[in-house]
Amino acid sequence: MGMPPIVKTVNLRKYYLAYKIGLLDRLFGKKPAWVRAVDSVSIEIEEGETLGLIGESGSGKTTLGKLLVTLEKPDGGEYYFMGEKVTEDKIPWVRQQVAMVFQNPYSSLNPRLTVKEIISEPLGHFDEDKVREAMEMVGLNYREHGNKRPRELSGGQVQRVAIARAIIKRPRFIVLDEPTSALDASLQAQVLNLLMDLKEQLKLTYLFITHNIAVAYYISDRVAIMYAGKVVEAGDVDEVFKKPMHPYTQLLMKSVPTIGRKELEPPTGEVPSLVNPPPGCRFHPRCPYVMPICREKEPQLINTSNRLVACWLYQQQ
Amino acid sequence: MPGNAFVSGKIMVDGVNLLELSEKEMEKYRGTTVFMVLQNPFTSLNPVKTIGYQLMEAARIRMERGGERYSEDRAYEMAIQALKDLRFPDPEIIMLRYPHQLSGGQIQRVVLAMSLILKPKILIADEPTSALDVTIQAQVINLFKQLSKEMETAILFITHDISLAYVISTRLVVLYAGRIMEDGDIESVIREPMHPYTQGLIAGVPDLSKFVSGKVKLQSIPGNPPSFLDLPSGCKFHPRCPYVKDICKVQEPKLTRVNNRIVRCWLYGG
Ligand SMILES: Nc1ncnc2c1ncn2[C@@H]1O[C@H](COP(=O)(O)OP(=O)(O)OP(=O)(O)O)[C@@H](O)[C@H]1O
Ligand code: SF4
Ligand code: SF4
Ligand SMILES: [Mg+2]
Q1: What pLDDT, in 10s, does the model give residues B17-61?
Q2: Contact call for A154 and B224, based on CB within 8 A
Q3: Among A93, B62, B133, B223, which has the highest number of CB atoms less than 10 A from its own CB?
């Protein structure tokens, strides 16, 4: 038997309250409504790989990332980290080995702290050698940048600070939530190259959330596509991008802006509600191939020719 | 603008220099004449007011400027329609939420919805789709194109994504270290970038059409953008330029017209 996957979820769920319900509403019998941000997601991430996570805005990507680093508590399903089931008492152990980098470094880092304080914070105490080493690994200079505050640094440098902070405890697994989307193209390339180098050097595993298809292609080994709180397709990055199987993934590829094509053809139709998701396949109101069964029964994520797809086109009805 | 910022020159809108207006006169221009979608949309929303309150406030401003009497029903309708245009499912529920209860891309779309309601003459949008997935981005771009055509809104679209700039714009201006480096018709700048910085930018775009197996390193322009506190002498791009000449280090080139293009570089006469 091989190693267990470093991350494995089974029907993981996270529901948020859609809006606050006052006492009066409750007296009048108004029922709470839930946003199904992550709805029965089962994924596996192998040690050492980068899983790219792509999907529609509001489809639950950040929420899934937060669940995996235990910043949010699931409402249902199971989470296994390095083969161990994560229960309440295991959370401190998981937190020792995971980290998350957020999309907007200026708002996720404490603006009042200096760079070296920000980076050492996860350690719980200040350790100059470790901070110096982490800074060097991300291409920052301890003497030059250590005493600065985030607003005195450029966007690319601040994101390097966030990355140094993420690696200081030598985690095994890092969730990168759109880490380069606020950077200009030349810096984006530098930061992506840095992340690839660090991964190699520190033997890291990444969940890389992005909406930039080209970036996902560049950085991932495998990709998973999320739609309305569900994973609808997952597989090897080359195979998925060259031959997308799920109709949503196919439309996603057609919406990518490319030099030389002036008109974009995004999918039409309503974006699904996460409060009242459509019955059956959640993509059915917008799917060009919709069949009667799609409106009634939800397709499961199943393995077909080395690919996970949740679509009736590929399974027995 | 922060109190320690300093602007010189003129900002002309319809023949009026905005920098000469008093704060009170300027109020009339904010929102419906010029509206800015900031790169960090979080700061554009009030964290303690619901989305509905903030969108209806924009509708009120639009109605009053247009000489219409304010009607709450009409404002609610306008807000819901704008949320629908921005592909929000459950717009009624979004109206009840506070900013912290939305995802990154949803916040960005609320600010864009505000711009649709205000219908400004000039829309300045700084990376307005940076948090959106490509399908919604494509829909937003189509919406912007329509806004500029139907309402004759001029759009200044600030982005680092050249492919996106290509899709939305007719003219491209490339800035580096606060200076215009190149300015011209979008098709021609993309096909034949003249300035070395523009050339580097285009080479750094991860391009789907280059799908190749085996990972290659992305080309990136070596070095870092300069700090504004310590700008290099001469051409501001010279420490990173592969074509740097002696003159580049001592004297800054001026913007020069070359055919239908404007470029700031000694390679083209400076
Ligand atoms: N605190 C909250 N209360 C209520 N709903 C929430 C809360 N946080 C997130 N949501 C909702 O949960 C859903 C998923 O949000 P999430 O941030 O995971 O999306 P995402 O896929 O990361 O989107 P984006 O690409 O726009 O960042 C969204 O519909 C969002 O509005
Ligand atoms: S299950 Fe049906 S509706 Fe859903 S994606 Fe497949 S074909 Fe389309
Ligand atoms: S002026 Fe000189 S340094 Fe500047 S871009 Fe042109 S060739 Fe390069
Ligand atoms: Mg997100």
Answers
A1: 777 777 777 777 776 778 888 766 777 889 899 999 999 999 999
A2: yes
A3: B133
Which member of A20, A62, A274 has the closest CB to residue B104? A62
Give Cβ neighbours of residue B70 (< 8 Å, ≥ 6 apart).
B60, B63, B64
Rounded (5°) CA angle A215-B225-B230: 160
| Chain A residues within 8 A of B241 when measuring between CB atoms | none
The DSSP secondary structure of B87-129, one letter per residue, reads T-SSHHHHHH--GGGS-HHHHHHHHHHHHHHH--SEEEEESTT
Contacts of B92 in chain A (CB under 8 A): none
* Distance from the Cα of residue A256 to its chain's centroid: 19
Q: A119-140 pLDDT, tens per residue?
A: 999 999 999 999 999 999 999 9
In this predicted structure, the answer to whether residue B211 has a pLDDT above a threshold of 60 is no
Highest mean pLDDT among A5-9, A252-256, B206-210, B228-232: A5-9
β-partners of residue A52 are A208, A223
Give the whole-angstrom CA distance, residue A124 versus residue A114.
15
Q: What single-letter DSSP state applies at residue A149?
A: -
Tokens 């619901």 belong to residue: B50
A103 close to B (CB below 8 A): yes
Name the pairing type of β-strands B12-13 and A76-81.
unpaired
Structure tokens at B240: 């990173």
Question: ipTM of this predicted complex?
Answer: 0.74
Q: Which residues line the pocket of ligand 2, CB cutoff 6 A?
A: A 247, 281, 283-284, 287, 289-291, 294, 299, 311-313
How big is the A-B interface in CB pairs under 8 Å? 170
B39, B107, B218, best to mutate vs chain A, most A CBs in 10 Å: B218
List CB contacts (< 8 A) between A276 and chain B.
90
Q: Which segments of B97-227 does DSSP mark as H helices, in order?
A: 104-118, 134-150, 162-168, 186-191, 196-203
Is some CB atom of chain A closer than 8 A to the CB atom of B41? no
Quote the ligand 1 centre to B4 CA distance (angstroms): 36
Q: Which carries the bigger pLDDT value, residue B213 or residue B5? A: B5
Is A304:A239 a contact under the CB 8 Å cutoff?
no
Nearest Cβ partner for B96 among A19, A56, A192: A19
**Other CB atoms within 10 A of residue B72 CB:** 10
Task: Tell whether A264 is within 8 A of chain B (Cβ).
Answer: yes
Tokens found for residue A215: 């970036």
- What distance in Å separates residue A83's CA from the closest CA in chain B? 30
How many Å apart are CA A102 and CA A104, to the nearest integer?
Answer: 6
Q: For residue A207, give Cα distances in angstroms to A60, A224, A303, B72, B130.
A: 14, 10, 21, 45, 19
Contacts of A255 in chain B (CB under 8 A): 134-135, 137-138
Query: With an 8 Å Cβ cutoff, are B130 and A190 in contact?
Result: no
Residues in chain A: 317
Whole-number Å distance between alpha carbons of A191 and A179: 9
